[in-house]
């Protein structure tokens, strides 16, 4: 319980730090002041209601009119203040959710790529979506209601003790028992809420995976299997919800019994007091109204505290992610060279992925690529070709050795500056949901005209198919609306438009993808013929016929460089490259 309280305080401090100095503080302050005013007004309503009724009964006309006037004033004040309070809480809540999502999103965007290897997309988006919303409930709902009910309950208790302290003490005992039972029930609720959150997330993950792989599911006819997988989590959810409902039933029974017990005790003891002439019927009526108020306030506080605890649970991971330090690449100020020549050196580079630390992916790679040289990297699947490019793009850092660009260690260069001079086309290029022009211009910082976009598209053999689309370059596309080859051509145009000094092409994996080969060969031809701008090109090729014209071919095997040379030299050597070439020629024949 102590650690729970500590967590609430930490959460509150985090929230205040996050939004301090904003209009938020103003709204929150106004809201607190208005809160006190609303509660003072509302708490006096039962008093004046009873007094009005009893003054009418005893024909005290002047008192009756005064009480009615008071009642109207109080109701109007409470109404206006409630409206103000709701509005301020709404604004404070909106500011909080917006700021949380902004902070979390920018923190996630600046993480190392290896961070994303360990997290699922569903998990991260649910942190941004439902979890941020849940945390904002702390301000918008839980704290608001807790504050309101604590104020109301305290006011009611003071009034009860003033009216009749023996009856007040009886009600206090009942409320304390209620609070103790609520605590136990709240702890149970917290446990089940966590389970429900986990099972619901698992069900979501299954649904998300199925929808994103819908074509595979349809082709393999696994709809029933997927439904079963989803149902598995739904059954678990239903089981926990069933237990939760039973606990809720028991809780309701207890609450009702205690609530009615207060009324019976009040009527019984109060009736005896009236008979003995200690209190009046008016006082007893007020007493019953206020004791109801107290018991309901106790119930609400308990209920909101358990909801607050759920928000605390959701907030832990959100604030943990927000507090992550950005990747070094965004903190350290690297050097920007006057002009990039495009000389790349791998010096004794070794690497393994953090998620599989025991598996060496690259071992002692030594490779020097000269400015303007076209180097092809080939090898069996999984031999580490894409990993070499990942290191060159500084998506990961080498475990050993270093990579030099124009003689400067990669980690001493300004990463943004360097990336602005590299064009990269991945194996399975992805498109953003925007028009084709914007997709080609994506990430290009210089001022681009439509003619430039079309020039790049022509070089990438994309212009012809784009003009055939209904809205040409303005056609809205996303990752599903074009063929793999068309997406690759747009990605090539995107890379060419940057006018990169270093161009990296990762050919589509499918060894039989003739369109991919055609696209990559086309780019290589353009690079060769464009003598005005010399580019260093690294091409990872699966179809060996793609890269016969490369200046040099690097053959990878098990994370090491097995052979290096021109196409003819390697064929002469009769090693791995020759074997791979023979294998592909046989496959075609
Ligand atoms: N993010 C990652 N986390 C852990 N291991 C990875 C990751 N990416 C790749 N690997 C592993 O690293 C090894 C080399 O992968 P890489 O993608 O570099 O091979 P490749 O030669 O490019 O293969 P392909 O020709 O099929 O694209 C493989 O064993 C692969 O399973």
Automatic annotation (TrEMBL):
It is a multi-pass membrane protein. The chain crosses the membrane at residues 6-33, 71-96, 157-185. Keywords: ATP-binding, Membrane, Nucleotide-binding, Transmembrane, Transmembrane helix. InterPro entries: AAA+_ATPase, ABC1_TM_dom, ABC1_TM_sf, ABC_transporter-like_ATP-bd, ABC_transporter-like_CS, P-loop_NTPase, Type_1_exporter. One of its GO terms (molecular function) is ABC-type transporter activity. It holds the Pfam family ABC_tran. Residues 71-310 form the ABC transmembrane type-1 domain. One of its GO terms (cellular component) is membrane. It is found in: Membrane. Its main location: membrane. The keyword Nucleotide-binding applies. PROSITE patterns: ABC_TM1F, ABC_TRANSPORTER_1, ABC_TRANSPORTER_2. SUPFAM superfamilies: ABC transporter transmembrane region (SSF90123), P-loop containing nucleoside triphosphate hydrolases (SSF52540). It comes from the Eukaryota. Residues 344-583 form the ABC transporter domain. This is ABC transporter B family member 26, chloroplastic. It comes from Gossypium raimondii (Peruvian cotton).
